[in-house]
Structures are given as C-alpha cells and as structure tokens.
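REQUEST ID: PR-0412
SUBMITTED BY: lab tech R.K.
PRIORITY: routine
TASK: structure prediction, single protein chain
INPUT:
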Amino acid sequence: MGKISLYKVDLKNLKSDPVKYNWVADNEFFTMLDVQDVQKGKINVELNAVKSGTSYILDFSLKGYVYVTCDRCLDEMTLDVEVADQLKVQLGADFADKGDVIVVPETDGFINVAWYIYEFIALNIPMKHSHAPGKCNKDMESKLAKHSKGDNTEDGDPIFDGGDDTDSQTETDSRWDELKKILDTNND
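STATUS: complete
OUTPUT:
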C-alpha cells in the first residue's frame, strides 16, 4: 500500500487555482495494482485538480503505451493509449460512487486515483487487439491456417483470414430450408 499512496489527491487543501500532478504508470504501477488485463506499459499521467463550488474537478490526460496479447498469434504487442477523462468528486459522510460523482469521506479529505487511472487505461483498450496485417508470428499463423477449415493456402503460403469464411454461408441447416419454404408459400 506504500507506493499506491503516491496517487493521493488532497482535496481539503485544494483551492480555486488548479493544482497539477504528474505520474508515470509503468510496469511497477500495474504490478502494484495486481491486475490481469494490463501488466506492462508506460503511461504519462497528468492531472489538473481544481475546487469548483462544493465539488472538485479532476481532469486526467494519459498518453503512452501498454503491452497486450495479440488475439491471433498470442504474442505480446504494443498498443498506444491516449485518454482525456474527468472525475467529479465531493466530500460526504461515506464513500459512494453515484455514477458521475464520486463521494469520499470528509474525515479522510483525499481520493486515491490509482485505480481510476487504471480504469481509464483499461476502458480505452479495444475489445479485439491484433497485430497489423503481416506482423503476427508467422509460425502461429501457419499453425492456425493448418488447423482451420479447408485448405487456406495460396501459392503454398498459409493465409489466416481471422475466421471470416464466406463459403460457410452457402451451406445452411436443413431446418432453415423447411422454414424458408413456409415463408415462400406465404409470400405467393
């Protein structure tokens, strides 16, 4: 818990003038949070915190890269991350997450933003991530092509098309053919 305290923002001492914080979310940061999705990377984090009435506005700007696993070849790949996001925080009796406003205990008077930084990163990683065409591990592509449906070779070179096989659309389940006949007779 020691190093995670670096990400505390003291709300009670914030004034109407912005306060700037700078951190680097690197391999140690991801290890400290003990998360599975992202374990390595380097993200420069800039936070501008300002008091606005009874609320505190935390504007985050994150820029850098993380390492993720390619969905096709399972090799590690670099994924650029650039995020601009905001948290609105208020002081209250107990901690609460009200969707667009985070309430932290007034007795504490601070918010630790480490987990929010991670969430901003994780939520901006696409669901599907793969190398650019031709950049995947050639051995793995060869094995995938060998075990995929049909002969996916062109001039002796294996081709991995990501599983989008248009030939499979011509073969249909015979039950659908019977239902189609019913539709056809009703349309006449």
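NOTES: The first strand starts at residue 8 and ends at 10.
REVIEWED BY: pending
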